[in-house]
Amino acid sequence: MKTNRIGLFGLGCVGLGLYQLLQATGSADLSIYKVVVKDPDKPRLIPPELLSLNANDILENDSIDLVVEAIDDADAAWEIVSAALRKGKPVVTANKKMVATHLQQLTALQQETGTPLLYEAAVCGAIPIVRSIDNYFSNEPIRSLSGIFNGTSNYILSKIFNERLDYSLALKQAQDLGFAETDPTADVGGFDAKYKLIILALHAFGIVLQPSRILNIGIDRLSGDDIQYARKNGWKIRLVPALTSTADGVTGYVIPRFVKTTERLFGIENEHNAVEVESVFSGTQFFTGKGAGAFPTAAAVLADLRDIARGRRYDYTRLSSPASVLDSSQVQLEIYLRYSDPALVKALNFSTISEGTLDGRYKHVTGYVSLDSLLKCNALIVRDTATVIHTGQSKVIKKSILKEELVAESQDL
Ligand SMILES: NC(=O)c1ccc[n+]([C@@H]2O[C@H](COP(=O)([O-])OP(=O)(O)OC[C@H]3O[C@@H](n4cnc5c(N)ncnc54)[C@H](OP(=O)(O)O)[C@@H]3O)[C@@H](O)[C@H]2O)c1
Fold it and tell me: Which of 42, 191, 310, 313 reaches 20 to 30 Å from 212, CA-CA?
């Protein structure tokens, strides 16, 4: 059996997890040959002769067959991954931001060089969702993809709803446990979930979505009043990225959503992730598992390494016939808005309002707004420290016949 020699970038949670997993499983077909890190002074748990601070010790080393990129810097990761592919070295990466922000270049580079790149670990950790969407679901149209893609946010929301912790204490606990970064913005602001959604959109619909044009509203402005509102209705709040295919095109966004007891997402707790896929022939399928952590993530990297050794790569079947992207002004979402300044309600230009309290300390309304208004008013929403929560209801306004039609299964909240 040939032993594939791995050049590993990064020896943090994921990199060290991979090293330890390979040690524990005694894999004869894969061996870590060189590990490039950044900080020369950190104590390390691996033999010093494996370590280097020089990227070229991997990139220019002809004895290295495969590259694993597991660093926490998306710009440096892009430099490493693109250089490795150009050198003809297949790459496995865990870096969702780097993949999502360079999708077009990465698919072109793979085509140009004939060298594969796999990134299962970048989307929902141990859940094998990228390969499933790319391969298994390439045989049938996908109607929608949604779920819980960010373990940190879900951990915080679980603690708030199950243990009545307040937001800052739940965040601190997540940081103490190593789920959340010191700067948690990418997780609690919905950016991390958005990068994963963008990656899945490529495989599910063949489209390359620009991060700046996809709405991400996080959980960082939820107040006690919002939690109380959900609780009194018997709901929880979850951060739910959603991609929906309609007759006029695909739409996607990341917004906190009220979740009812009857929904599968209701029971997904703590750092667990879930992906619900609705497709035309198979109906609905639900994947759940650990979305982060050293071994779950390293397991996904290992699965990709083995796939590369077997000559597998992504099919990108839908890239040749991409779906249209729905104009955001056609998408109407029913939202709960808690706000301070009435000017925000005006600016959002609700098409209908079904309930609300328009004065006093706790001002909130529920009604339909366009995705376009939410995108345009996002800075105002942040400035107001307002909360936006999707009720789960959405409609598409048909441009041609100006008729409203329901997008998703109506969720009777
Ligand atoms: N943690 C998870 O559960 C998880 C799950 C899925 C995906 N991911 C993704 O996996 C990647 C790594 O995450 P992590 O949690 O393992 O990060 P981490 O624990 O913060 O470790 C980052 C590692 O990257 C190294 N590094 C940073 N810049 C470098 C550079 N320019 N050259 C070489 N090494 C460099 C650091 O070196 P030093 O040790 O010298 O500082 C460190 O070893 C990220 O893209 C993350 O989004 C993580």
Answer: 313
Ligand 1 atom closest to the Cα of residue 73 is 28
Question: At which residue do the structure tokens 């993949």 appear?
Answer: 99
CA–CA separation, 55 and 29 (whole Å) = 24
Residues 6+ apart with CB under 8 A from 32: 6, 8, 18, 19, 22, 46, 50
- What is the C-alpha to C-alpha distance for residues 338 and 345, in angstroms, rounded to an integer? 10
Q: Active-site residue numbers?
A: 196
Query: At a CB cut-off of 8 Å and minimum separation 6, what does 138 contact?
Result: 315, 317, 318
* 385-396 residue pLDDT tens: 999 999 999 999
Query: Does ligand 1 lie within 6 Å of residue 51's CB atom?
Result: no
Top mutation candidate among 9, 14, 179, 199 for ligand 1, by most atoms within 8 Å of CB: 14
CB of 71 closer than 8 Å to CB of 10: yes
Q: Which atom of ligand 1 is nearest to the CA of 77?
A: 31
The 10s digit of each residue's pLDDT in 147-192 is 999 999 999 999 999 999 999 999 999 888 877 777 899 999 999 9
The answer to whether the predicted template modeling score (pTM) of the entire model surpasses 0.90 is yes
- Asked whether 121 and 297 are in contact (CB, 8 A), the reply is yes
How does pLDDT run across 347-361, given as a tens digit for each residue? 999 999 999 998 899
